[in-house]
Amino acid sequence: MPFGEYTKKHIFKPLDMNETSWYIRDIDTKKQAVPYVYISAENVDSQYIKFVNETLGLYKDRPVKEGFLPLSLYSFPNIPDGLIRTSVRQLGRFLMMYIGEGNYGGRQILQKATVGTMLSDDHFGTGLCWYTSHIKNAGNVWIHDGGDPGVGTVMMFNKTDKTGVIIFTNGSGAGIGKIASRLFEEVAKLQ
User: Fold this and answer.
1) Is the entire prediction scored with pTM above 0.70?
2) Which candidate in 5, 93, 119, 168 could, as Cys together with 15 as Cys, close a disulfide (CB 3.0–4.6 Å)?
3) Are the C-beta atoms of residues 35 and 170 closer than 8 Å to each other?
4) Bridge partner residues of 37 (DSSP)
């Protein structure tokens, strides 16, 4: 079974992630945020901009200028590496399932042992797709983050107090890890 079909059937559907897909063809593109990259005067001729132009085929007939450069919705052929299309609300269900050791809403989506393996540090000191960091007042949290041109994401959770944070940006994502960490620090002060 192809990976996209498998995740739809065994993860997205049981989590009611009905508007989630690895493929642009399977989503309502009107609900997708336009991805942007910021072009400064210093990087207008950079390798990154050349990469965006050559890889995504954008702006070949007109010069790139300083400012926010909108990108089209794009995809890479390397799923499950990234570029899943979803909302914070839907990804929140996925995160709650992790916090619940594979259980969400009374349904066991992933086996508890599978989540345990993914969150063990047996994989070169990190979990499988996750890593840990210590946050002041909040303790150790598990983190998954990523980004591509015009996209930045971070997802964090604390197994002990069962709190989590998800942030999406339609830009570079610079600094969102610090924002998420700060949210954990502030929540810890309230407890």
Assistant:
1) yes
2) 93
3) yes
4) 69
The residues, ordered by sequence, that sit 6+ positions from 106 with a Cβ below 8 Å of its Cβ are none
Beta bridge partners of 165: 156
Nearest to 164 by CA among 173, 154, 155, 172: 155
Q: How many CA atoms lie within 13 A of 137 on its CB side?
A: 11
Indicate the length of the chain as a whole number.
191
Ranges of each domain in the chain: 87-190
How many other C-beta atoms lie within 10 A of the C-beta of residue 35? Answer: 21
Residue 87: count other Cβ atoms within 10 Å of its Cβ.
15
Q: What is the pLDDT of residues 33-61, one digit of tens each?
A: 999 888 776 766 666 666 666 665 555 55
Give strand pairing partners of 157. 142, 164
pLDDT for the residue 62? 56
Secondary structure of the chain as H, E, C letters: CCHHHHHHHHHHCCCCCCCCECCHHHCCHHHCCCCEEEECCCCCCCHHHHHHHHHHCCCCCCCCCCEEEECCCCCCCCCCCCCCECCHHHHHHHHHHHHCCCEECCEECCCHHHHHHHCCCCECCECCCCEEEEECCCEEEEEEEEEECCEEEEEEEECCCCEEEEEEECCCCCCHHHHHHHHHHHHHHHC
Query: Residue 69 has which token pair?
Result: 């450069």
User: Hey, what amino acid is at 145?
Assistant: D
